[in-house]
Amino acid sequence: MNITNKTILVTGGGSGIGYATAKFLVKKGNKVIISGRNPEKLKKAALALGIDYIVCDVTDADAVKSLVTKLETAYCDLSILINNAGIGFVYKLGEGANAVEKARQEFETNYFAPVRLIENLLPLLKKQPEAAIVNISSNVAFHPLVVLPTYSDAKTALHSHSVALRLTLSTDTNIKVFEVMPSLINTEATKDMGGEQHGLPPAVAAADIYNGLNEDRYEIFVGEAGQQYADYLADPKAAIAKFNQGLY
Asked: 83 phi and psi, to 5 degrees?
């Protein structure tokens, strides 16, 4: 897929992987719109990149409808959606963990939000001669991390949805569905996970996303995720134990 002169929406584009990806795509000659729920952060990011932004909490159904209306009106040539917005809680399952409430928040942002936005944007994407949906999941989508238990659940659900959506849309549309599975990336959201010490720069993920789209690699692995996936396919039990070594 040729990722040049495309109009692209990046959710959660005010920082981290979303910001780095927006920056990379702009340099490659694309028109990028970023969205997010923090107006100040979003405005600052958009001004730095010289692009447009739309404030939207993707967990709010009415806000998503408003976002889609704005896109249909002002960006009717939108052809790529990058579902990047996400949250995660670092904790362990057990008595007093409050796992249900943490899971509810994680699923609202990491799973239900992209599913809703995709469904609402399908009519617009279907109008384009070439289009793509890009879901940012994680290396925990294929095996869990015990200190990110319900985050792992949500990303696994997004992985499954991406596969089903890819197969479904391939039958009668020109919409391609990509899934990006990064290993640890150094962002504000990963400070509690050791991102500053052990994470890759967001720019690495941005470059891998761009290259993966250009090469039509529907599953895009970033950092160690590719080897982790290969290890999992070879020996799931051993791979999961290695992935969680020292954490349980």
From this structure: -85, 95
Angstrom CA distances, 233 to 27, 104, 223, 237, 239, stand at 36, 29, 17, 10, 8
Residue 246: left (phi > 0), alpha (psi -120 to 50), or beta? left
Tokens representing residue 142 in the block: 């294929």
Residues annotated as catalytic are: 151
Which DSSP category does 141 fall into? G
Residues in the chain: 248
Alpha helices, DSSP H, located in 96-235: 99-107, 113-126, 149-169, 195-198, 202-214, 225-234
List, in order of start, the domains of the chain with CATH numbers. 7-243 (3.40.50.720)
What is the Cα Rg of the chain in Å? 17
* pTM of model > 0.90: yes
SS3 (DSSP) at 139: helix
pLDDT in the model for residue 42: 97
Q: Residue holding tokens 């791979």? A: 239
Mean pLDDT score of the chain: 95
Tokens 């005010």 -> residue: 14
Tokens coding 201: 């720069």
